[in-house]
């Protein structure tokens, strides 16, 4: 028997890939959490230029100074947050940012609050830091409730906040973000705010948690905003004391984010932002098609205000009938046991696919 660390044994492979891989060639795949758009042309060209100019060596561990400056300006412009470039670390996607934040802030046995259901990586990152995940149940409309939070907050080390949310598509209102952050700050609990879907938002307002408190780490990425998931470019920003420690962990696990991706990111953050709006408009149109299709079939669910997911309480039987009909979705227990009666549809796929999926689902709901 090979000896395996308890840390590794304590985590499992994400349940999402399993369903993605279960898709047959004629299935309509609504499992994936990534934009189906191509990376904008000017961003790709910046990377190609960087290659031709030989900008292919290591960069500073924390990232290119000009990129950190651009991200600092982005925080100011879009979020009204003041992070100086020294408080920003460029990472291999938001995934690495979450990992190094948890490694740097959480000690063995520390309690970390996260929602159930929630994004799959959080629990694994907590466990790999030997922290103790403590789950906050959501309300029926898939939001964080202040009273439930109040009951849990005392003595926790960290609270993970994710708005707009994966898997629910819920966006916490500015008032709720403020109340959540104030509750955490009053209890001396650090907030780790994952804002990767900030620009995939409809009829709602995104407020950064950092607006309302100081003991906050903001995590973000180019991945969803600029359709750059494969480039692996993200970042985290926070108080100097935290960033000094995060930089050490980052240095030893990653050295630096890919140089070429960083030049691409520089073009993304400093270039024309109209591509972001174009994608957002298309996601909104797709959301509307899926939401009205499901509603016409009698499915009841909270209409998502952000990200590119519908999280609907279909029950296990209907979920598996939908899969049998050739529409592959993710059963909600992949995101925590509280999601067991739900399923997640990703509408990061073409309108044509969404229309076809609705047609395939109609017989499941007794319509032809
Ligand atoms: C809420 C959330 N945070 C972080 C990530 C990871 O993003 P990245 O691809 O930048 O590592 C994802 C990816 O699906 C996500 O949904």
List the topology elements.
Elements: H1 6-9, H2 15-22, E1 28-29, H3 41-52, H4 65-79, E2 88-91, H5 93-105, E3 111-116, H6 120-128, E4 132-137, H7 146-153, E5 158-162, H8 174-186, E6 190-194, E7 216-221, E8 234-237, H9 240-253, H10 259-270, H11 274-296, E9 309-312, H12 316-324, E10 327-328, E11 330-331, E12 343-346, H13 351-361
Parallel strand pairs: 1-10, 3-4, 3-5, 5-6, 6-7
Antiparallel strand pairs: 2-8, 7-8, 9-12, 11-12
Helix pairs in contact: 3-10, 4-10, 5-6, 5-9, 7-8, 11-13
The structure holds pyridoxal-5'-phosphate.
**Strand residues, percent:** 5-15%
**Class from secondary-structure proportions:** alpha/beta
Question: What average pLDDT do the residues reach?
Answer: 96
For the record, the CATH class of the largest domain is Alpha Beta
Query: Which spans have pLDDT < 50 for at least 5 consecutive residues?
Result: none
Secondary-structure element series: HHEHHEHEHEHEHEEEHHHEHEEEH
* Structural domain count: 2
Largest sheet: 7 strands, mixed
End-to-end gap = 55 Å
How many helical stretches?
A: 13
Number of strands: 12
| CATH-scheme architecture of the largest domain | 3-Layer(aba) Sandwich
CATH topology of the largest domain: Aspartate Aminotransferase, domain 2
What shape does the CA trace take?
A: globular
Keywords: Aminotransferase, Pyridoxal phosphate, Transferase
Cofactor: pyridoxal 5'-phosphate
Subunit structure: Homodimer.
GO molecular function: pyridoxal phosphate binding; transaminase activity
């Amino acid at each position: 028997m090979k000896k395996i660390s308890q840390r590794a044994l304590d985590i499992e492979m994400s349940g999402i890939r399993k369903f993605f891989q279960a898709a047959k060639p004629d299935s309509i795949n609504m499992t994936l959490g990534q934009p189906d758009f191509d990376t904008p042309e000017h961003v790709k060209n910046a990377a190609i230029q960087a290659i031709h100019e030989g900008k292919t060596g290591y960069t500073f561990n924390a990232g290119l100074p000009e990129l950190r400056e651009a991200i600092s300006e982005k925080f100011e412009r879009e979020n009204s947050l003041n992070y100086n470039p020294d408080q920003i670390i460029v990472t291999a996607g938001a995934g690495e940012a979450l990992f190094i934040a948890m490694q740097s802030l959480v000690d063995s046995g520390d309690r970390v609050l996260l929602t159930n259901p929630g994004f799959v990586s959080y629990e694994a990152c907590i466990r790999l830091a030997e922290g103790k995940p403590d789950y906050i149940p959501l309300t029926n409309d898939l939001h964080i409730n202040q009273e439930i939070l109040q009951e849990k907050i005392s003595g926790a080390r960290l609270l993970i906040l994710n708005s707009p949310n994966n898997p629910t598509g819920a966006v916490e209102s500015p008032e709720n973000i403020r109340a959540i952050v104030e509750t955490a700050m009053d209890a001396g609990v650090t907030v780790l705010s994952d804002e990767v879907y900030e620009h995939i938002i409809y009829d709602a307002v995104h407020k950064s948690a950092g607006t309302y408190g100081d003991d906050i780490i903001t995590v973000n990425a180019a991945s969803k905003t600029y359709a750059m998931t494969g480039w692996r470019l993200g970042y985290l920003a926070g108080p100097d004391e935290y960033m000094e420690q995060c930089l050490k962990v980052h240095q030893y696990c990653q050295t630096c984010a890919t140089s070429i991706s960083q030049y691409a990111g520089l073009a993304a953050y400093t270039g024309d932002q109209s591509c972001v709006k174009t994608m957002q408009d298309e996601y909104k149109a797709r959301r509307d098609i899926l939401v009205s299709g499901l509603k016409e079939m009698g499915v009841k669910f909270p209409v998502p205000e952000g990200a590119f997911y519908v999280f609907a309480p279909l029950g296990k039987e209907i979920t598996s009938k939908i899969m049998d009909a050739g529409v592959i979705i993710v059963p909600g227990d992949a995101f925590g046991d509280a999601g067991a009666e739900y399923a997640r549809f990703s509408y990061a796929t073409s309108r044509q696919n969404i229309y076809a999926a609705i047609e395939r689902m109609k017989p499941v709901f007794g319509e032809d």
